[in-house]
Amino acid sequence: MQITLKVWRQSDANSPGDFVSYPVDNVTEDMSFFEVIDMLNDELVLRGEEPIAFDHDCREGICGTCGIFIDGRAHGPLQGVTSCQVHMRSFTDGQEIVVEPWRARAFPVIKDLAVDRTAFDRIMASGGYISVNTGSSVDANATPISKHDADEAFDAAACIGCGACVASCKNASAMLFVGAKVSQYALLPQGQPESKERVLNMVATMDDEGFGSCTNTGACESECPKEISLEHIARMNREFIKASLG
Amino acid sequence: MSWFKSFLNSSIGKKTVMATTGLLLCLYLVVHLGGNLLLYAGPDVFNGYVKNLTAFKPLIRVIEVVLVIIFGAHIVNGLRLAIENKKAGGTSYQLNRKNENSTPSSRTMAITGSVLLLFLIVHLATIWYNFQIEHSGGQFFNIITGSDVGLGNMFIAVLYGVAMVLMGFHLKHGFQSAFQTFGIRFNRHGKLIEMVSILFWLIIPAGFLSIVIYFGFMGGAN
């Protein structure tokens, strides 16, 4: 296959960026999208040019580090996968693929395709935890939790914080991320003592960081690599309204 | 009251205001359409109905003030959200396949809402205003169906028609979205909410539209 990558290049946070087209030969359909960027980067280095910066780590779809807007979709054309799990068989020979960083005011570009997602860390620091006494581990059956609640909490906890929800939302809203984080504790008894402060603080930090408001378009749910449900946003809304009222 | 102020200024508070006022406006549509459908019963019945309403003038005025507050909150809050959300988005994507992940009606709430605001202003400045200065009491039917400020004016009839189609589009997303905002869109309620939503995005706008078509374009009053 021969493809053309039309990549956003930006040398640092303060420089204006622009698209640069790179034709790439010898691509096979079994290659991952990242292997194609690796191949292109090797070539760029040999030519004495700056390689394309992009976030990636495990390349197994579980760490949440990667996140690129590929061909008009967060994490590319497939559903339920991260950018590292996109393979070239999803594209056609001769195709031009537009490659862009996440676009949101709260996720400023650091360089090329890498964006600063520390806003998520600050949201987590404001309430995405539970306080427990240290010591020997608690008996596993000391706190019974129903199978249904355990499953739902686990579904919420599957969020890897990649930011695709923000990237695909027309309002750059982080509510699916925060909804998942609030839900995973709200569903479990361990999360109850701090539930009120947690939702109030996390939503306040989310708003302060410059994320937009949710208008329920559902784009986040469609593009989430872990298929986190909008129901978690509904639960966060409920928790927030309840906590605000008293 | 500071908790209330900070609630209203939070992202979830703002959407709660949109949802609450939006649903109240939906309820008002039911009452409004009920009255409008009497147009089909002819001038005598319709004029009699409006005259009867004027007997409750003080109550009607109270309802109007409440409606102004609800509309005002919905409009001001909606515009504020649209501006803030635009800012939060930052740079636009060069290629964004939005149709793959969301519906056109959910993405165009600010645009359809703005056209509806224009319609509302025209509607109040023409029909509502003329109803207030109509003293003889016999011409209400005519104001709507035949006069220059009503469906007798082709421009107004077209604006009304377009506005009703856009209202359906607005409510297709808006009605069910309000329940999601309140946090009561569980799987088990989803189907029920979807069914009731058809009443608001399809049947009620179609009812209003039928009046526009029948009296504005088919000469229903003759």
Which class do the helix and strand fractions of chain B yield? Answer: mainly alpha
Name of the CATH architecture of the largest domain in chain A: Orthogonal Bundle
Rg calculated over all Cα atoms of chain B: 19 Å
Low-confidence runs of chain B: none
What is the count of helical runs of chain B? 9
Distance between the termini of chain B: 57 Å
**Quaternary status of these chains?**
heterodimer
Main β sheet profile of chain B: none
Task: Return the average pLDDT of chain A rounded to an integer.
Answer: 96
Structural class of chain A: alpha+beta
Which stretches of chain A are low in confidence, meaning pLDDT under 50 for 5 or more residues running?
none
What's the helical proportion of residues of chain A? 25-40%
Order of helices and strands of chain A: EEHEEEEEHHHHHHH
Summed up, the helix count of chain A is 8
Question: How many strand segments of chain A?
Answer: 7
